[in-house]
Design a protein that fits this description.
Order of helices and strands of chain B: EEHEEHEHHHHH
Number of strands of chain B: 5
Oligomer: heterodimer
Strand content of chain A: 15-25%
Shape of chain B: globular
Largest sheet of chain A: 7 strands, mixed
Radius of gyration of chain A: 27 Å
Helix content of chain A: 25-40%
Number of helices of chain A: 18
Number of helices of chain B: 7
Helix content of chain B: 25-40%
Number of strands of chain A: 28
Chain lengths: 732, 156
């Protein structure tokens, strides 16, 4: 990391550095001030900290306690614990001394979104470097105090000892009475991974204690004095406009504080939560709407997609691919389909907002507090400086769900009842019908083999709607923004975003990839792994098909075309652990393998799926998933295992069951009956092996499982039945 | 509209002036300020709002308070806290069986009810007992391991 040189004021310079690099801000400050927000408590409105210290990553107080500040939020992946481990390791303090503050525009630096499995690579790296810098600074100070060279000092739990004299001083004592601020120079030495005592261990998540005992953890648990409850009357279908809202129907209902209407946006604010629910039901029955029809339906949607063949975006160009396939001894082509699928968070989105003293506070489970703030500023036409957004964990979201939208709902209602905190809780059907889905996708793959079964070339054509429609400063990205009397328009921006993630094969063969951007009928945005899920499902199914045509073991066939030893290692581990060679040679066993390196640059993941097929009942059961993952330096081994097993089961659920149903009148998947997900009786056993490489940089691991699991299940079904399933969810 | 309803929750009788038609979940979360039971679907489909009603795991999102008054109700908070954790809570923490943790309430409630009736449940019986609970993070296999561990601790 180069040292930062600037003649601008320090803070300004750091801001520019952030803008220039787009991800890392490694400024830090040391101060003796205690901090208002404690690690696991609920983040009620705390004083806004000085603007100057917003860029801090590490704070150490006079007691020697360390506060880590991250712009990333906790989505259930245990990121708080992993980041605290990285700081504690580098600073040589016990975990008990470490607290963490997650994304808050009043306290933490702008790290954009918590997304793309990038928290450890981005925030973790910054925190590690800031911690190393703080340690160096403290050692330099101690060298003077203890009259010893830095090389003669050791640190244990924040106590610095001079080896020669045995004299020691604590971090806290060194700082006593002084406020010191510094920046990361990048010159502070990082620890040798072989000396780690904390990073790479399975340090437990403290927040699980709170979760298991009913302490307040989630945005849904926020309670404030004078808090009002609200519900939103959402339109019945995209683009519907309100034609009549008979307000007199609310007469006689208890507790109604205010009916807020702005164009087709309607919110009801009540004293008690159930009063708001009752009022919502009345409004739902009495409101009338102008409803444009939804179209096209599945499966016509896929035909329309395929018909769009102009303006293809060349993702990977290779002019030799078409001729190679045309001349191949064995030519193969297959089409794969993925329907719209949903995040399906257990807790419907929720937010609280308060407009008081010319300041708007918003508590949200958003994945991006700064982007949400700028989008709220656009929506409300107030400057960003009047808005503070604090992240509070919600139910697992796995991408862009309703969190930002409900934040906007809460902000609009809070403006209408100044001074009062307003809690907006979406109902289950709000979440099911309005969250942005993972896009439907269509993939056509072509490949060629020579007479000996060697792979000659691969060609991929894919059709997809956008996978990135996060708010990003444009109020038209809020549902409410589109419904207002003076509506904001939605512009998808970088259209192809995420669609071709993992579409380019890692296999060493000439390859070509073309993307056709298609605007489908449903609202779409980032769902865990974005386009990678369908792209890897198609690619890894297709490779399996080619291996079969070549008469080769599908695992060996993959290994033959992988150059990266790390990629081969995860596959080899599975071959060994699952007794692959013997079992794959048995017909009808139901074993399938698949592999991918997430984003072609993050974690390596391979998976073996075992299925049992009942041919007469045309049913299959997923018996077991065995995964192998390598994410470079493992920060928290247990965290990676937990994430990976979870990703495997979630992907199995998508793959076996999930598809958003809709018709001309709107979304029909309005609850868990109409959008079933995997329940306990159908969940497979899971086993996860982690390859730890402490000497290598850590890689994002949270989304590695999604695509390979889908293909492995399809491949296992093929192994058992000889039937190739190419449409998700997989039905025999 | 409002009436006095007495709810017996976590060993205490609470006299509340509420709409007797209000589902129990709202009374627990708002009037009693309990966090354990969670709103998930309001339709008895996801199990996030589970409570023990006379010792049996039951969803609380549709049952009117008037009807709930006839029962003894225990929430996650009443199962264990601080240094006196229930074996299931202990095992969940030890096994790190959570991701977002939103479904933990339903898992723990159902597991406790199961272990009261069946001290040595098989994997299949554990799955059956948790069938009403949905988990989106895919923590299922850890939940099953934790409950087995709790059962073993109970027996030991």
């Amino acid at each position: 990391m180069p040292a930062h040189h600037s003649n601008q004021p320090a803070n300004q310079g750091r801001r520019n550095f952030l803008k220039n690099t787009g991800q890392l801000l490694i400024g830090f400050s040391l101060t003796q001030a205690p901090f208002a927000v404690h690690a696991e408590g609920m983040p009620f409105a705390t004083p806004r900290v000085e603007e100057d210290s917003i860029n801090a990553w590490i704070r150490i107080d006079a007691e020697g306690n360390v506060t880590v500040l991250t712009g990333k939020t906790e989505l259930g992946q245990g990121i708080k614990t992993a980041l605290m481990q990285m700081a504690a390791e580098e600073l040589d303090v016990n975990m008990k001394r470490i607290r963490i503050i997650i994304a808050d525009t009043g306290q933490t630096s702008d790290e954009r979104y918590t997304a793309g499995s990038a928290s450890i690579e981005g925030s973790g790296r910054a925190i590690r470097m800031a911690a190393a810098e703080a340690r160096k600074r403290l050692l330099d100070m101690a060298a003077g105090k203890l009259n010893a060279p830095v090389s003669g000092l050791t640190v244990k739990d924040g106590i610095i000892t001079a080896t020669a004299t045995g004299q020691s001083i604590s971090y806290g004592a060194l700082l006593n009475g002084k406020s010191i601020e510094g920046e990361v120079t990048g010159k502070a030495p990082l620890k040798d991974p072989s000396t780690y005592t904390l990073v790479g261990t399975a340090y437990p998540r403290e927040d699980i204690v709170a979760m298991a005992t009913g302490q307040p953890v989630y945005v849904q648990d926020l309670r404030m004095p004078g808090m009002l409850h609200a519900r939103i009357l959402r339109p019945p279908v995209y683009g519907a406009t309100l034609t009549a809202l008979p307000e007199n129907k609310l007469t006689g209902l208890a507790g109604i504080i205010k009916l807020v209407r702005n164009g087709s946006f309607v919110g009801i604010v009540a004293q008690e939560e159930y009063q708001a629910v009752k009022a919502l039901r009345v409004l739902q029955q009495s409101a009338t709407w102008n409803k444009p029809p939804l179209q096209p339906m599945l499966p016509e949607l896929f035909n329309k997609m395929a018909a769009q063949t102009d303006n293809g975006e060349i993702v990977e160009k290779n002019d030799s691919v078409d001729p190679a396939i045309a001349a191949a001894a064995v030519q193969h082509e297959a089409v794969y389909k993925r329907p719209y699928q949903m995040h399906g968070s257990m807790g419907p989105s929720c937010a609280m907002a308060q407009w008081k003293d010319d300041q708007l506070m918003v508590w949200s489970h958003t994945q991006g507090v700064y982007p949400l703030r700028s989008t709220l500023a656009d929506l409300l036409s107030i400057p960003e400086s009047k808005i503070r957004v604090m992240a509070v964990p919600g139910a697992g979201c796995y991408g862009h769900n309703g969190a930002d939208d409900v934040g906007a709902d809460a902000a609009l209602l809070a403006m209408a009842v100044p001074g009062k905190p307003v809690r907006v809780q979406w109902m289950r059907e709000d979440e099911h019908t309005w969250e942005p889905y993972g896009s439907a996708m269509l993939l056509r793959l072509k490949g060629g083999l020579d007479a000996q079964g060697n792979l000659l070339a691969l060609k991929t054509e894919l059709w997809s709607d956008t996978h990135i429609a996060r708010p990003g400063g444009r109020a038209g990205h809020f549902i409410a923004g589109r419904d207002l009397e003076k509506p904001f328009t939605f512009s998808p921006g970088r259209f192809s975003g995420g669609s071709y993630r993992n579409a380019v094969p890692l296999y060493n063969t000439p390859r070509q990839v073309i993307l056709y951007n298609y605007k489908g009928p449903l609202r779409t945005s980032a769902l865990r792994s974005l386009g990678a899920y369908a792209n890897i499902f198609a690619l890894e199914s297709f490779i399996d098909e080619l291996a079969h045509k070549a008469g080769k073991d599908p695992a060996a066939f993959r290994m033959q075309y992988l150059n990266d030893d790390r990629a081969k290692a995860v596959i080899q581990l599975l071959i060994d652990k699952t007794n692959w060679k013997e079992r794959i040679s048995k017909k009808g066993a139901g074993l399938g393998i698949a592999f991918a390196q997430y984003k072609n640059e993050a974690a390596y993941f391979a998976i073996v799926a075992e299925v049992q097929v009942d041919k007469t009942a045309r049913q299959y059961r997923l018996v077991k998933l065995t995964g192998a993952i390598e994410a470079g330096q493992a920060i928290n081994i247990d965290g990676i295992k937990n994430q990976t097993a979870g990703g495997m089961i979630q992907s199995a659920s998508w793959t076996m069951l999930e598809s958003v149903r809709y018709n001309a009148t709107g979304i029909q998947s309005r609850n868990w009956d109409t959008y079933p997900i995997l329940r306990f009786n159908a969940v497979p056993d899971t086993e996860v092996f982690v390859i730890n490489r402490p000497e290598l940089p850590p890689l994002g691991a949270g989304e590695a499982a999604q695509g390979p699991v889908a293909a492995a299940i399809a491949n296992a079904i093929f192994h058992a039945t000889g039937t190739r399933l190419r449409e998700l969810p997989l039905k025999l | 509209m409002e009436k006095t309803v007495v709810l017996n929750v976590n060993g205490k009788a609470w006299s509340l002036n509420i709409d007797p038609e209000m589902p129990l979940l709202y009374a627990l979360r708002n009037n009693l300020q309990l966090n354990g039971p969670k709103y998930g679907c309001g339709l008895h489909q996801c199990g996030n709002c589970m409570v023990l009603m006379d010792g049996k795991a039951q969803p609380s999102c549709m049952m009117p308070c008037a009807a709930a008054a006839a029962h003894t109700i225990t929430t996650l908070e009443g199962i264990g806290s601080g240094s006196s954790l229930h074996p299931v809570q202990k095992a969940i923490i030890e096994e790190q069986a959570a991701q977002c943790g939103y479904c933990l309430n339903g898992v723990i409630i159902c597991a406790k009810a199961l272990l009261e009736e069946n001290k040595h449940p098989s994997d299949a019986e554990i799955r059956e007992a948790l069938q009403r609970v949905l988990c989106r993070c895919g923590t299922h296999t850890r939940f099953i391991s934790a409950i087995k561990k709790a059962a073993a601790a109970n027996a030991g």
